[in-house]
Amino acid sequence: MMETKKNSVIESVMALINDAATIKTIILAAIEDAKKSQFTAATTKLEEADKKLIAAHEIQTHLLSQEAAGQKVQVTLLLVHAQDHIMSVSTYRELASEIIDLYRRLAETK
């Protein structure tokens, strides 16, 4: 039983790391679209990234809920690494909106 919970946490943590990598790739592609003045495509990609980021946050919430319910969630280096990736990609997302807005303004001046 304990091994099953441990495997479940590891699977959740690995999903977070994988999701973060996917989200980062989508965000960087959105910025590349904006560089080419393809703002509709950039916006679509940001919306896709947002959906995936929400799903990643749901995994985080599940882990936090387990701990809040009194179930011990072992804090491992892997879990800290996953959290770091999610925080990093959240920052990427916020900055991407600003960068895309700057490219939009630049395109309007041409």
From TrEMBL:
Cofactor(s) named in the record: Mg(2+)
GO MF, one example: transferase activity
Cofactor note: Binds 1 Mg(2+) ion per trimer.
Keyword match NAD: no
An example Gene Ontology biological process: phosphoenolpyruvate-dependent sugar phosphotransferase system
Catalytic center residues: H81
Keywords per UniProt: Magnesium, Metal-binding, Phosphotransferase system, Sugar transport, Transferase, Transport
Pfam families: PTS_IIA
Binding site residues for Mg(2+): D84
PANTHER family cross-referenced by the UniProt entry: PTS SYSTEM N,N'-DIACETYLCHITOBIOSE-SPECIFIC EIIA COMPONENT
Descriptive protein name: Uncharacterized protein
Organism expressing this protein natively: Loigolactobacillus backii
Highest classification ranks of the organism: Bacteria, Bacillati, Bacillota, Bacilli, Lactobacillales
